[in-house]
Specification:
Blueprint lengths: L1 E5 L4 H17 L4 E5 L14 E4 L13 H13 L4 E4 L1 H10 L5 E16 L11 E12 L6 E7 L2 E8 L4 E4 L7 H14 L7 E2 L10 H10 L2
Parallel strand pairs: 1-2, 1-3, 3-4, 4-9, 5-10
Antiparallel strand pairs: 5-6, 5-7, 7-8, 8-9
């Protein structure tokens, strides 16, 4: 059983994420249990869960929300049990805040929105069979200058740290969104236009060929196999 934390606040975005992550898990023949950000404080992450996926959010990891403490407790629980953890976008940033420190996260000089190419910098189990991929990008914050024991795994043209692993631990973060297919990502891009019209010109919504998204599935296949 995979535990998935849906940290999106807007109901339509939350539903879109649920659909996307369920589809990814179904393709890998895995069952997921999803809880929302407002139920974290009453949740007990018992032994039935093998993996943890921490999703994205409209919230900034640089802020201090009421639900950040219970979120940290769940992450700490999985880390202490040495169970695999994957953070996506906000989840990627929050893992760093939680395990390394808030000083390792910053506002992006140029936020990334739309389709972007991710370049893999080193061999790693999370990127088995992948040297680069095209994926959905949507973030105002990013991870910066990680401690020496963190492995930087991938970058994009606009972000130096698109993926990391905490040493040899089973803890990974990815800034991009491999959970979304073309349709799901276009919902995200439209939401960005609606909520943040000032950055509409930054959105690269030109995806030349759908097959460019094929490697996104491998991220989940690789993570769920550890």
């Amino acid at each position: 059983m995979i535990l998935v934390l849906n940290l999106l606040i807007d109901p339509s975005l939350s539903e879109s994420f649920d659909r996307a992550i369920k589809a990814r898990l179904l393709k890998e023949k895995k069952e997921g249990y999803i809880i929302d950000y407002d139920n974290l404080d009453t949740f007990n992450p018992d032994s039935q869960y093998s993996h943890l996926i921490v999703g994205g959010s409209e919230a900034s990891v640089l802020d201090d929300k009421e639900w950040y403490d219970p979120l940290k407790k769940i992450i700490d629980h999985f880390a202490e049990k040495n169970k695999p953890i994957l953070g996506i976008c906000f989840g990627h940033q929050f893992l760093v805040r939680c395990l390394a420190g808030k000083e390792y996260v910053k506002k992006s000089t140029t936020p990334e929105f739309g389709w972007g190419e991710i370049f893999v910098d080193r061999d790693n189990p999370l990127f088995n069979g992948i040297d680069k991929l095209t994926s959905c990008l949507s973030h105002f914050d990013e991870v910066s200058a990680l401690p020496e024991n963190y492995q930087v795994l991938a970058h994009s043209n606009g972000c130096e740290i698109q993926a990391f692993q905490v040493g040899e631990k089973l803890i990974w973060g990815i800034q991009f969104h491999p959970e979304y297919d073309k349709e799901g990502a276009e919902e995200i891009f439209q939401s960005v236009r609606d909520f943040f019209p000032a950055v509409s010109d930054l959105i690269n919504d030109n995806l030349p060929e759908d097959f460019l998204l094929d490697n996104n599935r491998l991220i989940f296949k690789n993570f769920l196999s550890v």
